[in-house]
User: Which sequence fits this backbone?
């Protein structure tokens, strides 16, 4: 069987691409190792148009049900190899199976760098977050900590200072990598306390975050009560698997055109993994996924017309 489109990634972008492709009567398969992608790490979503508040699971369930209701198929697996064959079709390899497609959309997202400390995984979605823009409003009037020393950490601390009562910005040394103007702005905020030369050792809580345990440069162990922890130490693009088929920027993100095209005809990308996605937000990823799916449809239409024009009568 050859699919018209195979989508790699089953987060909001991948499910959205499937909704638009199936409505164009494209036989569509979604391959993803975890339904929902990074959204599973959120608790509630408050910045998606049309919903004042919606849980992460309900949001993904709605997208999933809608995509499948239009005829999309879903396979829980991880792509380990992608190649383009001589006949211009794509072959996708998972651990146990192989699939063929006329077009492919990559919505593989980014993986947040982890602190790798006790309590981080267990309290994910229960006070531990990797996106201040997404989850910040949930901590209005509360005390939070931001971990990191780059632009994303300082930007998150600045934004959270307008929402939370108290913000702790924690970094392992005093070598901040953020813009100087942003560092100055954060230092001037009265409700932001910078804890430099400090390493977080544990995130503590039963059903939700209650405090963090950290160690100072002199070896002393201390703790501070917080309601939320925002880990902003970067994100990783796992794009080596498609390195031969795409161009990548210095952060290994996939370079795409405004139509979400990669350098390989028939191969598209959308969402956080692209270089066009400066703001890593659900709405941005979904918009790009819409474009990618419609671009894949147009690509098939164009190829069909080319084939028809070369038929000998």
Assistant:
């Amino acid at each position: 069987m050859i699919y018209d489109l195979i989508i790699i990634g089953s987060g909001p972008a991948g499910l959205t691409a499937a909704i638009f492709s199936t409505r164009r009567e494209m036989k569509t398969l979604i391959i993803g190792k975890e339904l929902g992608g990074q959204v599973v790490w959120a608790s509630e979503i408050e910045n998606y148009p049309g919903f004042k508040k919606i849980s992460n699971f309900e949001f993904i369930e709605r997208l999933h049900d809608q995509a499948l209701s239009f005829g999309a198929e879903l396979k829980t697996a991880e792509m380990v190899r992608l190649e383009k064959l001589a006949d211009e079709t794509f072959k996708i390899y998972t651990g146990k199976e192989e699939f063929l497609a006329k077009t492919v959309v990559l919505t593989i997202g980014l993986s947040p760098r982890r602190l790798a400390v006790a309590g981080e995984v267990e309290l994910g979605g229960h006070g531990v977050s990797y996106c201040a823009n997404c989850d910040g409003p949930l901590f209005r009037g509360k005390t939070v900590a931001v971990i990191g020393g780059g632009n994303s950490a300082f930007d998150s601390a600045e934004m959270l200072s307008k929402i939370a009562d108290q913000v702790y910005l924690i970094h392992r040394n005093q070598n901040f990598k953020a813009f100087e103007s942003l560092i100055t702005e954060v230092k001037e905020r009265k409700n932001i306390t910078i804890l430099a030369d400090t390493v977080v050792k544990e995130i503590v809580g039963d059903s939700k975050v209650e405090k963090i345990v950290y160690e100072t440069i002199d070896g002393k162990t201390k703790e501070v009560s917080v309601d939320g922890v925002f880990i902003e130490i970067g994100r990783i693009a796992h794009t080596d698997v498609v390195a031969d088929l795409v161009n990548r920027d210095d952060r290994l993100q996939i370079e795409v055109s405004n139509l979400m095209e990669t350098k390989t005809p028939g191969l598209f990308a959308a969402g956080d993994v692209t270089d066009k996605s400066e703001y890593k937000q659900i709405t941005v990823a979904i918009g790009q996924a819409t474009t990618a799916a419609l671009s894949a449809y147009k690509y098939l239409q164009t190829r069909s017309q080319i084939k028809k024009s070369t038929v000998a009568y």
About this structure: The mean pLDDT is 91. The two ends are 29 Å apart (CA to CA). DSSP finds six helices and 19 strands in the chain. The chain has two domains: 2-110+237-309, 113-231.
